[in-house]
UniProtKB/TrEMBL annotation:
Domain called DUF7834: residue spans: 193-421
Protein name (Swiss-Prot/TrEMBL): DUF262 domain-containing protein
InterPro entries to which the protein is assigned, alphabetical: DUF7834, GmrSD_N
Sequence ranges assigned to domain GmrSD restriction endonucleases N-terminal in this UniProt record: 31-185
Superkingdom of this protein's organism: Bacteria
Xref: PANTHER family: DUF262 DOMAIN-CONTAINING PROTEIN, SLL5132 PROTEIN
Species of provenance: Tenebrionicola larvae
Length: 478
């Protein structure tokens, strides 16, 4: 493995000039964007900042080059220079140069092709915005020779990836999803990379589903790890990269599912009949690098879209149970106020349940999980904070209850035995708190009418009575 470092300007890159490094081989080759790279995604805010930075440079520092950090390139065996880090800056600068110096376009020997539809759309949109903005600029000039980079070129894709993973240049910072995408796509055979890159792109924004899966895997009593707060995005990113990138191993695409089997008869001597086989992945299963992890993420993204999307029309449900679940989820869960953290935990619990038991008794599971997971909304005096989830899971390890149950009935027994007391503060006749509105919304869903001037204790008793009769007493056949 060799690493070559050189200083160059934008004009040299665009024209395809041979670049001389401080030491080592000359840098030559056509620029390209690997399939595993995220699409070009800079928008107006990043372009506006880039252009203002350039104007500031022109005004104050013309004697020196405008330095825009490092570009990381991987030189593959064919001599292609794959852009590992820098496509956002390079693409944006190329658009600016093309608008202000159209006569130079014929000199661009290092044109880069963009196959991603998202990249193509963003380029067209940014070109229109820049065309309008630059014409209004008081400094409508731009020189590609003013823009300077440090090139880091390596012939090892792994080494380039490690550089890429640790970069924190300006603009849109890499998310955990961006990094693990590169990690898994680059491990797939080249003839399949384009297929899986397109499949990944179709999945859309994976950050919400990855965060839910992270909680489901971390909140595990036998292997408990702290889930980083969303207020600490760098810690979240590191946790995602470690769990879904670095800790994945080499191996085939494996989906762990449960099957329920019975002996045919007492004389069958070990022969079994399979009653039910669940197809799919289990939330806490071990993962292998490449296709396995991509299929795993696609599977749970599909569950979320199929069951927990407010856009999913119950009338389009495939089965009666699916329709019942969608109606309950959309009428009971989605309208509730002040419950975002609780909803995130509920969604994780539902994905874990579905990955083990499918749609079996799913609507009943939803109601019983709601009773437990949303209990802090009435036990807390006021707000439900992110830290509330840790307190709840210490007392009621609901994810472990699901994961360690062999049947829905076993899980329901755990959920039914959970008890809590309601804090009656802020739910009196004169109060208009989020907690009080929450209680009334839940009672309305279960067709329980309570006067709005009901005493706080009466309201609390009615809520508890409703849960007892409408949720706890649900049998596995309901």
């Amino acid at each position: 493995m060799s690493v070559v470092v050189a200083s160059c300007n934008l004009a040299q890159l665009l024209s395809g000039e041979v670049i001389t490094p401080t030491e080592g081989e000359l840098i030559t080759g056509s620029l390209a964007i690997p399939e595993y790279q995220r699409p070009y995604c800079w928008g107006e805010s990043q372009l506006d900042k880039l252009w203002k930075d350039y104007l500031h440079y022109k005004k104050n520092h013309q004697e020196n080059a405008w330095y825009l950090g490092s570009l990381i390139l991987h030189k593959d065996p064919s001599g292609i220079l794959n852009i590992i880090d820098g496509q956002q800056r390079l693409t944006s600068l190329t658009l600016i140069n093309a608008i202000l110096n159209p006569h130079q376009i014929s000199k661009y020997a290092n044109n880069v092709s963009y196959h991603s539809p998202q990249s193509q759309h963003q380029i067209r949109s940014n070109f229109k915005w820049l065309l309008k903005t630059l014409k209004q600029s008081s400094e409508p000039t731009f020189s590609a020779t003013d823009v300077n980079f440090t090139l880091v070129v390596t012939d090892s894709e792994d080494e380039a990836y490690r550089f890429f993973e640790t970069q924190n240049t300006g603009g849109v910072r890499l998310t955990g999803s961006d990094i693990i995408k590169a990690h898994h796509l680059r491990s797939i055979e080249r003839q399949q990379q384009n297929h899986y890159a397109q499949r990944w792109e179709i999945l859309g924004d994976l950050n919400p589903i990855i965060n839910s899966l992270l909680r489901g895997r971390f909140c595990n009593t036998l292997h408990k790890r702290d889930v980083p707060s969303h207020r600490k995005p760098l810690l979240v990113r590191n946790a995602v990269v470690t769990e879904f990138g670095e800790m994945t191993t080499i191996g085939p695409d494996i989906a762990y599912g449960r099957s329920v089997s019975h002996r045919k008869n007492k004389h069958s001597q070990g022969r079994y009949l399979v009653e039910q086989t669940l197809e799919g992945y289990e939330l806490r299963q071990p993962l292998n690098t490449g296709i396995n992890t991509i299929h795993y993420l696609a599977y749970f993204q599909g569950i979320q879209n199929h069951f927990m999307s407010p856009e999913m029309d119950p009338e389009l449900a495939i089965t009666p149970e699916h329709q019942n679940f969608l109606q309950c989820y959309q009428e009971l869960i989605i309208p509730l106020e002040g419950c975002q953290y609780l909803k995130e935990l509920l969604d994780t619990a539902l994905m874990l349940y579905i990955s083990q038991f499918g749609e079996k008794n799913l609507t009943t599971a939803l109601k019983k999980l709601f009773m437990v997971i949303y209990s802090p909304r009435v036990t807390n005096e006021k707000t439900v904070k992110e830290s509330t989830l840790n307190t709840l899971l210490d007392r009621a390890p609901v994810l472990d209850w699901i994961a360690t149950s062999y049947t829905p009935e076993m899980c329901f027994q755990w959920l039914n035995n959970y008890t809590f007391d309601i804090d009656i503060k802020n739910i009196g006749p004169d109060d208009n708190s989020v907690k009080k509105r929450f209680i009334y919304q839940v009672l309305r869903y279960f067709d329980i009418k309570v006067s709005h001037d009901a005493p706080a204790q009466s309201l609390a008793n009615e809520y508890q009575y409703t849960l007892q009769n409408k949720i706890i007493n649900l049998s596995h056949q309901d």
